[in-house]
Amino acid sequence: MAEAISDVSAENSAVPWYRQPTWQVCAALLLTLVLLIGNYMVGRARGNALPEAVSQLQPPQQVLDGGPVGIKVPNTSPLNPGAPRVVVYQDYQDPASRQVELVLSDALNSLASRGEIVLEYHTMTFLDRDKVDGSSQRAAVAAACADIQGAYAAYHHLLFVGQSGTGFTEDQLRNEFATTAGLNGADLAAFQACYDNRRTETFVRTVAARALADDVSATPMYLIDGEPFDPTTLKLTGERVSEASLRAAITAMKNPDDETEGTADEQA
Asked: In whole angstroms, what is the distance from residue 118 CA to residue 75 CA?
C-alpha cells in the first residue's frame, strides 16, 4: 500500500497542476481558505485585523505639536494668562505612575478645570515590551476612545485605580471602567465600538513613538513649561496632595527668585 501511494504521488508530480485530479485542487483551495479565515480570526482577537479597513479617529482634546503628542484635560473656566503647561508622561501599567496619579490627580484636575494650568497626558506603552495589543496599548486606546465621549479624565483615573500588575481584562476596559466613568446607553455603545475596532490605535502609537523620540525613558515624568518637576518634593506620603500645596510648588518652580527673597526676608 505504501508503494502504491508513493507511485501515485510520483506520477502526479509530473503532471501540470491544472491537470491534477480534481480532489487535490479542491483540497488545496479549501486549505487556503481555512488558513485565511484562521489568520483573520487571530487578527480580530488581537485587535489588528484589517486595520486599513477601519477608519481612525482623533480624540477631540488631542494636543498637536508637529503631530499628536497627548490629550489635554479641558478647562471649564477661562485659561489664566500665562498659565503653566503641565505635561505628564505615563504608562497605564506603571506602578510608579499609579502612585503619583492617586495622590496628585484631584489637585491637578482642580487647577486645570479652573484654568490655572494646562494639563496634558502623554501616554506611553513601553511596558508592553514586544506584546502585540498588550495592556498598555489597549488601555491607551480605550482612554482615547473615552475622550471622544467626553469621559477622558474619569476613565484615565480609573485605569490607575484598577491597575493590578497583571494587565487589564477586556471586561474592565470595555464595560467596568466605562460605566463607572459615567458612560451608558448610546455613549457606551459608541465607546465600545471605538475600542473594539481600535479606532484610536494610530493616535496612541504616534503619541508613544513621539515620547520615545523625545528621549523620555521612564515614567512618570512631569514637566512644567518644559522643565522637569519632581513630585516627591511634595513629600508624598500616600495621602492626597492638596490643591494649595500643588499650587505653591508650581509657583515656587516658576518663580524661584521669589522663594529665595522670601526666605532671605524671613531670615532677616
From this structure: 8
Q: Which residues contact 101 (CB under 8 A, 6 or more apart)?
A: 90, 157, 160, 220
E strands along 5-83, which residues?
62-64, 68-73
**Cβ atoms within 10 Å of 61's Cβ, excluding its own:** 18
Q: State the Cα–Cα distance between residues 107 and 183, nearest whole angstrom.
A: 24
The answer, yes or no, to whether the previous bond of 220 is cis (omega within 30 of 0) is yes
Phi-psi region of 215 (alpha: psi -120 to 50; beta: other; left: phi over 0): left
Intervals of CATH 3.40.30.10 along the chain: 55-255
* E strands in the chain: 62-64, 68-73, 85-91, 118-124, 221-224, 227-229
pLDDT more than 90, % of the chain: 69
Q: Which CATH architecture has domain 55-255?
A: 3-Layer(aba) Sandwich (3.40)
pLDDT digits (tens, 9 = 90+) for 76-85: 999 999 999 9
Contact status, residue 125 vs residue 91, Cβ threshold 8 Å? yes
**What confidence tens digit (pLDDT) does each residue in 128-157 have?**
998 889 999 999 999 999 999 999 999 999
Three-state DSSP at 119 gives strand
> To which residue does cell 471622544 refer?
148
Residue in the block written with cell 455603545: 189
Q: Region 22-42: what's the mean pLDDT?
A: 42
